[in-house]
Specification:
By secondary structure, this protein is an alpha/beta fold. The chain has one domain (8-185, 214-234): 3-Layer(aba) Sandwich (Rossmann fold). Helices cover 44% and strands 19% of the residues. The protein has a seven-stranded parallel beta sheet with strand order 3-2-1-4-5-6-9, with helices on both faces. α3 packs parallel to α5 (102-123). Bound molecules: NADP nicotinamide-adenine-dinucleotide phosphate.
């Protein structure tokens, strides 16, 4: 399925960051894209940036009833991409196990693992027989780093779940894209000089010497959607961070 023209793709998280870049790339190859997010005003601003061919549906996929309503409103489609997460910095989960309040750890798992799980569960009845599901994890699933216990668990849980689901819902294909550090608004809370120092440190460490943009990472999703032999896979797109 190398031609994505006319494929009906729903992107949960398409209102910002990597999800928006995936929406743009898919729009440009002729896919019929619907972006989903909770913040209706931000979603509409993004939709206007993406143009009239892209549709937007506001809703919260972490709530079962709301997710069911959302996918019923969208109707039948071919491909689900989900990039949804609650920012780790907002919840202060880059912390040691001892220092991190349990409630924050649980909210983080709810905001990423359970949210993407619920999105897939609610989408399945509407997904075509040859459809695909693409989750988003992150490099911490397999990279040992200080203060990453709950971030690692969140991402590893998504990867493990996706491999099981790939068997369960075959011949639909189920995969995961695992980004490394990607320059998105997620890091806008940092003062500019701290952000730049952080990115410079990452550049020094990465084999590619570059921090990926959201557009760079979007390429992995297009590959996953096109690659008809790919299922149960985790595609790492991290500038080589896993081998650094
Ligand atoms: N940026 C990085 O460096 C990096 C590195 C590794 C992995 N990742 C992963 O890549 C993914 C995307 O990251 P990003 O930087 O693009 O973050 P982002 O801009 O915060 O994207 C997350 C999107 O998910 C939506 N969302 C969250 N919860 C939702 C829910 N319950 N229902 C519907 N939509 C929901 C958000 O919109 P609303 O808030 O409007 O709902 C937002 O548009 C995340 O899973 C992140 O963990 C990112």
């Amino acid at each position: 399925m190398s031609d994505l023209r006319g494929r009906r793709v729903v992107i949960v998280g398409g209102g910002s960051g990597i999800g928006e870049a995936v929406a743009l790339a898919l729009r440009d190859v002729g896919a019929v894209v619907t972006i989903v997010g909770r913040d209706a005003a931000r979603l509409e601003t993004t939709r206007q940036r993406l143009g009239a061919k892209v549709r937007a549906e506001a809703g919260d996929v972490s709530d079962e009833a709301s997710a069911a309503r959302l996918f019923t409103a969208i109707g039948p489609f071919d491909d689900l991409v989900t990039t949804a997460a609650t920012s780790s910095s907002l919840l202060g989960v880059s912390a040691s196990m001892a220092d991190m309040p349990m409630a924050n750890a649980e909210r983080f798992m709810a905001g990423k693992f359970w949210t993407q799980y619920r999105a897939a569960r609610a989408a399945l009845p509407h997904l075509s027989a040859r459809g695909t599901i693409t989750f988003t994890s992150g490099v911490a699933s397999r990279k040992i780093m200080p203060r990453h216990t709950v971030i690692a668990a969140n991402n590893a849980a998504l990867e493990a779940m996706a491999k099981q689901l790939a068997r369960e819902v075959a011949p639909r294909r189920v995969n995961v894209v695992s980004p490394g550090l990607t320059s998105t608004a997620t890091y806008d809370h940092l003062p500019p000089e701290r952000r730049e120092a952080f990115f410079a440190e990452v550049r020094r460490q990465l084999p590619t010497g570059e921090v990926a943009s959201a557009a760079d990472v979007a390429e992995a999703y297009l590959f996953v959607l096109r690659a008809s032999a790919l299922t149960g896979a985790v595609v790492d797109i991290d500038g080589g961070f896993l081998v650094s």
